[in-house]
Amino acid sequence: MSVGETTESPSAKTGLAQLADTATKIRRAIEGVIEGKRDVVRLAITVMLAEGHLLIEDVPGVGKTMLAKALARSVDCSVRRVQFTPDLLPSDITGVSVYNQEAREFEFKPGAIFANIVVGDEINRASPKTQSALLECMEERQVTVDGITYELGIPFMVVATQNPIEMEGTYPLPEAQRDRFMARLSMGYPSEEAELAMLDSHGQHSPLDDLEAVSDATEIAKLVDIVRTVHVSDQVRRYAIDLVTSTRTSNELRLGASPRATLHLIRAARAAAALDDRDYVLPDDLQDLAIPVLAHRLLPTAEAQIGRRATDDIVADIVARVPVPDDSRSRRNAS
After folding, report:
1. Quick one: 217 and 319 in the same domain?
2. What span, in angstroms and rounded, lies between the C-alpha atoms of 329 and 33?
3. How many folded domains does the chain comprise?
4. Tens digit of pLDDT for each residue in 77-134?
5. Best CA proximity match to 292, nearest among 3, 96, 66, 43
6. Do 265 and 215 have their domain in common?
């Protein structure tokens, strides 16, 4: 057996098979819109099944919003899109209490955040005050307006896109905001073959128009419960902590990853293991997810910036340096 491996029960096999089948359908639906980006699509599905929020960062025109829309449309659930602009108000996101003259009382009008999947387009074009309206929503899955707390639906996921902060007219996301995103991914430019296929598929009409939902909110909620049952051995947990702790002691970083990052890393690893039809997490899962889960939370030192050391490179070096758990001491058999 591998590090952290456990014996699967029949019910676990059934649940993992259901999860793999649904995830495959969602992946194929998205890939009908996004050409040649299987790793990107897999990460997006991983974050959704791990109850996380996804930040898609790249230059304009590479398909950030298209990926967010495709993910949202592949699941039959409530979806709201928010176009972040400098004049967007926090109440536009959370909602506002309006006085009803007939009833002579205030009525709450829900904002765009009240949906299963919220697509935030160009989130860093809104002011920090408006961005902060998402803090409570993303962490506690609730909204407090005028002293009254309103619960958000299940599942709940924010998929936000942003252009690099050096682009004109953008505001850098606050550290607290970035820390609430489970993972960050970059689309990158397509290959020549994928771009050629895109010209054919997008030439006549948008493939989003043909995308049909292959799952629904109820089924996604069940799959999330299955992911929670994936086993993480003590050795793998300690390995996750070692990775995160190394970011806090690195000479190249002035801000390391938070305890929330450790939790997100484990949750994402559970989802990744489930997608691979495993009911246990391997150190490889943590290694594969370390950069997308940790890098966007970190702040490099001035010396690292001068040396053009990106946080992705620093995390990659940490992964290569931190010892992997010894297989002979990490096996576990279910009784």
Report:
1. no
2. 45
3. 2
4. 888 888 998 888 888 899 888 888 887 888 888 988 999 989 888 888 888 888 888 8
5. 43
6. no
